[in-house]
Design brief:
Blueprint (H helix, E strand, L loop, with lengths): L1 H17 L3 E2 L15 E7 L1 E2 L11 E2 L2 H20 L6 E6 L6 H14 L4 E6 L6 H9 L4 E7 L3 H6 L3 H4 L2 H9 L7 E8 L6 H14 L3 E6 L4 H11 L7 H12 L4 E2 L4 E3 L8 H4 L2 E5 L4 E4 L2 E5 L3 H9 L5 E6 L2 H14 L2 E3 H8 L1 H4 L2 H10 L3 E3 L5 E4 L2 H29 L1
Parallel strand pairs: 2-5, 2-12, 3-4, 5-6, 6-7, 7-8, 8-9
Antiparallel strand pairs: 1-15, 9-11, 10-11, 13-14, 14-15, 16-18, 17-18
Helix pairs in contact: 1-17, 2-3, 2-12, 8-10, 13-17
The structure holds S-adenosylmethionine (SAM) and iron/sulfur cluster (SF4).
Iron/sulfur cluster binds next to loops.
Amino acid sequence: MLTEKLVSFIVRKQVKKYFRLQPAVAGKISLNRTPQAPLLLYLHIPFCEELCTYCSFHRVLFQESIAREYFAALRQEIYMYKQANYNFQAAYIGGGTPTILLDELAETIKLIRSVFAINEISVETNPNHLDREKMQILQAAGIERLSVGVQSFNDDILKSIGRYDKYGSGKDIIPKIRDLQGWFKTVNIDMIFNFPLQTEEMLKQDLVIIRDLKVDQVTFYPLMIAATTRNDMERKIGIVNNKRGKKYFEMITAELQKEYRASTAWCFSKNDALIDEYVVNYDEYAGIGSGAFGYLNGTVYANLFDIPEYINQVKQENFPVVAKREFNKKSIMLYEFLMQFFGQSLNLAYIRKKHGFWATLYLYPIIFFFLVVRGLKSTGEDGGYIVRKPYYGVIMMREFFTAVNNFRDYCRAKVNNML
Ligand SMILES: C[S@@+](CC[C@H](N)C(=O)[O-])C[C@H]1O[C@@H](n2cnc3c(N)ncnc32)[C@H](O)[C@@H]1O
Ligand code: SF4
């Protein structure tokens, strides 16, 4: 417990520094990439039919006219990256709800496939969009991975987080997920553990349902709270007890490891060929769309959160960036360490080759610490380590995402003040 507290504390302090972003002026920035680094394209669709209590992603209530204008701007921004000579190997379309206007989504996918050499595309969706007609459109568009937000199959939990009425009960969702089998190379479901009212029994039932559904992949996030969602969440769903998170996580791994392998600290996949977390598989990514984050050549940047302003800047062919921060070598090392740890193994030889021997010296005390607390184990190969205690990865990523969420909240508050 003490080690977990220490790991959380250190990561919280470090990531606070990462997200002290400096304001940037849209259009006046340059976004450079590292030559040869595998590049991913992240597209953000910020519209939802219902706003869930716990969610701190950049999302607004769906309005068709603004959403159509938004998709047009998104395609314009894609062209801007093309004109700047970018190419991407994969695309991740997240939200919000990317499948909110399927004709617009299909047109956008057609565009990215025509201008970039994309090998795989992953799209997020919600259970109320899982009908045959929509799946046919997504399949025809060449989606390889579909990720469905379930969170829990327990109706009391679904009611408390504001999803039951819009996205259906556990019993409604189960057959829809079952019917997805075979439509895409990877079907993932997003689940959350450690909701305040979730008992061990409720979690066990969710795990039984998941094993019975035989989905290709399960992502089990710990419930994360951002500063500005905390009050509303505590009022509606109760106080989150992080102390029992480890126990719940151990229940999840014990059950899922019977049929799945951990492909990241919180993602469980049936086999190696499946597509999963892009932050682990791609060293760099460009963030396109309102409120999207990118990480290119050691610089993290965020796009404008104000949707009309985003559209306006893109129409003027300006990169719609609102803030950015150049990481120093130490921050780059820590970021890469964190992503590799999260991905379950560490390849120090790769980091050394990329950044030089001296830069990696920063990492030795950290690696030593994790060897002492038995979180890492050497593979015997030069600079090779495997993760022995994935829960440390969960804690570190929880702190990292909480910092991202807080930064989003800060930007959202700014947008609200302006309206
Ligand atoms: C941001 S949503 C976008 C896709 C879709 N709208 C949905 O609800 O699944 C993607 C996933 O993020 C996860 N998520 C959102 N807010 C979270 C939070 N506060 N803590 C943990 N996971 C969260 C949920 O599992 C959700 O399914
Ligand atoms: S969890 Fe998904 S559906 Fe709910 S508000 Fe967030 S993005 Fe929208």
